[in-house]
Amino acid sequence: MAEDSVQIVLVAPRNPLNIGAAARAMSNFGFFQLRLVNPYEVAFKEARSAVGASNILENAKVFDNLAAAVSDCTLVAGTTAVSHRDLHVPLYPLQAAAQLIREEASRARVALLFGSEKFGLSNADMSHCRWLTRIPTRDEHGSMNLGQAVAVCLYELRRSAAEQEFRFPAAAPAAAEDLERLTALLLDLLARSGYVQERTSGSTELKIRRLVRRLSLPAADAETWLGILRQILWKLKQEKDE
Amino acid sequence: MAEDSVQIVLVAPRNPLNIGAAARAMSNFGFFQLRLVNPYEVAFKEARSAVGASNILENAKVFDNLAAAVSDCTLVAGTTAVSHRDLHVPLYPLQAAAQLIREEASRARVALLFGSEKFGLSNADMSHCRWLTRIPTRDEHGSMNLGQAVAVCLYELRRSAAEQEFRFPAAAPAAAEDLERLTALLLDLLARSGYVQERTSGSTELKIRRLVRRLSLPAADAETWLGILRQILWKLKQEKDE
After folding, report:
1. Which residues of B touch A147 (CB under 8 A)?
2. In the structure, what pLDDT confidence band is assigned to residue A199 with cuts at 50, 70 and 90?
């Protein structure tokens, strides 16, 4: 995606906290172009003057109609919480939508529209959109908070870039000789503490050996565990001598 | 994921709006088990008494220490905005973390921890975690709003389920005969309106034919366009007769 090619457009936002939250999510995910269409003026002023208000809010552009706000964009995409209403415009899942936005934003300007907190985008707003997208929320409670919806959409837009294959770093496992030393120490401790009656009981030894192997002890921790057991053993021997 | 197997744990939240926003995102994405550790009491009361406060807040469980809050969970995972600090605990990208949570949640109880708005999870909190995860925000502005962070994590947890292959529904394209009728009408209009001098100019006809084919006209819209052009043509002829 070319820098600054995605325009986040809030249509008729009412709540300064939501405007601020949208700007914060934009900053979190590296989007800096905010446009507002007919914001409630008091709300916008309050958001701009809030402590920690960002450059994004300072540089936000305000328009009095949606057509003007998106006139320089080649793709205009809207968001909606509605999945059942006949929308007259194609509705794509967010993942697919994000892919289309990334493609278009690599060569031209894209506008992603969010409607007002209470009503979302109107049918008139939607008629400016090539298509709509919907965050996969529950049917029973589809409508998201504006700031949270912006955050989720921008996360999805950045997600693929972060999607490179991740391999869980496997901790190097302890070598068999460490496990065996641990087993021996443990058996000694168990015998001295009375947990097992006979130190030499073969079946006990096998049980303890298997128990230790099931720990998947990391190599880096082996010495620590051996030290702990040695210390306890030392203390037990000392007590006995007293 | 088994129903209700994921516990969302807010550690020392301070702001009622954030507690409410976390609960709203939980409801949006279908998670219903909220636990709070040492919430600022005034904030929790205010969140619970807010208009539209959910069952989730009503049923939230409050604990005075983290160990108690997660005692029945087999996987305790923390969230952090920090990527550079030596965390002493494995740090996994959110996508990989979500996969691990889904796996564990299919057979046991999982706790996903979010720290306080100002400080995040403390080192002591993190020591209860098997691993940590981080939302891929910008290094320059990593720290997300609490409610937005919860929304993004829960979206990612639900994302794979919604990830079934999506195919863009291709609109059935108009048949060649419709395109040719459209081309003929358009050529007639262009000749009558003086846009082209000679109706029969071969090169103009080819240009217009190609122009129409580049529209990728949907079959469902062909009749509408033909109707529009016929109406204009009728008007032009009428004007001429007057």
Report:
1. 21, 145, 147-148
2. low
